[in-house]
Specification:
Number of helices: 5
Strand content: 5-15%
Oligomer: single chain
Number of strands: 5
CATH class: Alpha Beta
Mean pLDDT: 83
Strand order of the largest sheet: 3-2-1-4-5
Helix content: 55-70%
Length: 298
């Protein structure tokens, strides 16, 4: 078992560098896309469905990013606890919650508890691709654009037509460092653009933007890409966090195995030593008994 856990530790250590590089490589694209969306949303008066706040939100969707495999410590359970906390908060506000899951651990968690899952994706937690992020983004955008009044009270299974929702949240593990990975919940829809919203000073001239073919058409193209890039970035962060958690868990398992090996080796030596001592005592006792019997006969 020690050899197995040591091998898994080394594999996770070799993959985590690549996962970090992928997450860092995706950051510039997400940053520039955020700036482009910010420019359109800030300096145009166009209202878009993905940026419009509903007056009375009734239904919310939560995308929970878990792992496909175990042996990663509390990685998946921490994400699920954060998702449960968010779900309770949304239910306390009077909203129905739909669960969207990535990773076999999350699917197993909901299946065991017989809870409905709106949609699930598995088989890519350690190496996510943009195609998967695009598929997830299209499904969530479709649910957000659908009419919530026609949605049932609870969603069941991977339905072809997603139930309409008023909000979309993502719960994933943010990679801070090799030692720190924290579960994070963010609201994805309606969009909250955080860059480019500061008001310029009175003496500063406002920038002049021209949108071709138009601001509405630009938003139609940029906003879905923005959502997909956010999901892809969350998947990459979760992948790096999963590998770091697995490396740490396997190192702890290897250290525990070494301690057990030392403990049981010591116990085996003590048992062997006690057995030898007992055999010597029996031989000496037999020799003494034989000597006494010989002396008595004489």
């Amino acid at each position: 078992m020690k050899k197995i856990t040591r091998a898994m530790e080394l594999i996770a250590a070799s993959r985590i560098i690549k996962a970090q590089q992928r997450a860092q490589a995706a950051a510039p694209y997400a940053r520039e896309l955020t700036r482009a969306v910010s420019a359109v949303a800030t300096f145009s008066n166009v209202e878009h469905a993905l940026t419009t706040e509903p007056e009375e939100p009734k239904r919310a969707a939560i995308l929970i990013v878990t792992s496909d495999r175990g042996l990663a410590g509390s990685y998946s359970s921490s994400v699920l606890k954060e998702a449960e906390r968010l779900a309770e908060k949304l239910r306390s506000e009077g909203k129905v919650v739909d669960s969207y899951i990535t990773g076999r651990k999350g699917v197993a968690y909901f299946t065991f508890r017989r809870r409905p899952v709106a949609a699930s994706w598995t088989g890519f937690s350690d190496q996510p691709s943009y195609d998967v992020a695009r598929e997830i983004g299209e499904r969530l955008i479709g649910a957000f654009l659908a009419d919530t009044d026609e949605a049932p009270s609870e969603s069941v299974g991977d339905a072809e037509e997603p139930a309409g929702v008023d909000e979309v949240h993502v719960v994933y593990t943010r990679f801070r460092s090799m030692l720190v990975q924290e579960p994070t919940a963010v609201r994805l829809l309606p969009l909250e653009v955080v860059e480019g919203t500061e008001k310029p000073a009175e003496e500063e001239a406002l920038p002049l933007y021209e949108f071709e073919p138009g601001a509405s058409e630009v938003l139609d193209e940029l906003l879905p890409r923005y959502v997909q890039s956010r999901i892809f970035f969350a998947l990459l962060q979760a992948s790096a966090s999963e590998l770091a958690a697995r490396q740490r868990a396997m190192k702890a398992a290897t250290d525990n195995a070494e301690e057990l090996i030392k403990k049981y080796t010591r116990m085996a030596n003590q048992a062997r030593q006690a057995g030898i001592t007992q055999e010597i005592s029996e031989i000496v006792g037999g020799v003494n008994a034989l000597a006494d019997a010989t002396a008595g006969s004489e």
